[in-house]
Design brief:
CATH class of the largest domain: Alpha Beta
Strand content: 35-45%
CATH architecture of the largest domain: 3-Layer(aba) Sandwich
Number of domains: 2
CATH topology of the largest domain: Rossmann fold
Distance between the termini: 29 Å
Number of strands: 20
CATH superfamily of the largest domain: P-loop containing nucleotide triphosphate hydrolases
Number of helices: 9
Largest sheet: 6 strands, mixed
Length: 339
Amino acid sequence: MLYEISQLIKVYGTRTVLDIPLLEIEKGRIYALLGPNGAGKTTLLNILAFLDPPTSGRIFFRSQPVHQPGTDLQALRKSVVMVDQHPILFTTTVYRNLEFGLKIRGWSTKERDRIIAESLDLVGMRDFAGAPAHRLSGGETQRVALARALALSPDVFLCDEPTSGVDVENRHIIVEILKTINAEKKISVVFTTHDRSQANALAQDILVLNRGRLIPAAFENIVSGTIEQANLSGYRFVLQNGMAFDVPASQVKGRSGSARAFLDPAGIEILKMEENVNRPDAISGRIASITAENEKIRLVVDSGVSINILLSVDEYRSVKVMVGDKVKVVTAPGSVHIL
């Protein structure tokens, strides 16, 4: 295991920005970290980069405990590189930008030339070696930043919104660069994004943060509403448009009033309108879109709010619905999570 994190808490002032009971990141894989603004994504990257210590909790890196202070953090930081959302390059040539870190680490001129050429080749920027780095476009700057990080031969790439503010052409190139770095160099990658489709295209694993907590699956199904008691033993989560979902008492934990909930897209069942469904929590809607997603089929149902549903290929074939069809959706027990 590359990272093993338990009971991690990060507090700024009086605000808890991260509360993660358990997180494991495997070596050699690509992880996407999704979540709304303020969810704690960048804070988590800084902790993974050993740039910011947690307030409390345990971190193991390559099976060794990390103590801050105490552990040789400088040695750990040589194994992990952080590529910022808006990387800053020195006002010199592209070559000199890559050479700086290698000179500090004591590489010979011959070895520096070889490493820089290979790194720029991989990102498609070798012809720009002599170009002024501060005059590059946003996409070119991001590619040089990736090459600069790659030249240091790290074990881990941590990328904060690597395609933010980048044109469409370079966005695609950067995604392919990260895939190549992972496949050919065996470098683990953790990147943040707001783009669910990009996460699906690039990552093998998706982590989702909401208000500093990891939640299962995708964050599209986070909705606002109120918690109401339905009977002596059960509760309902009621949305503003009147839709309601059954919620077990264990989820509520004595709470009432306004709240937010996550609806697990893998725990929602879709039924045709003509099926006789005698359930008060069955919600009517219309299929807005159907897309293939890895080995799953994603359906978006418009029922006043957009509800994302993930089905296996066999499940989708059994319901045989098309875009525009009227359907009903019901939530399986345990698929509604009060946040």
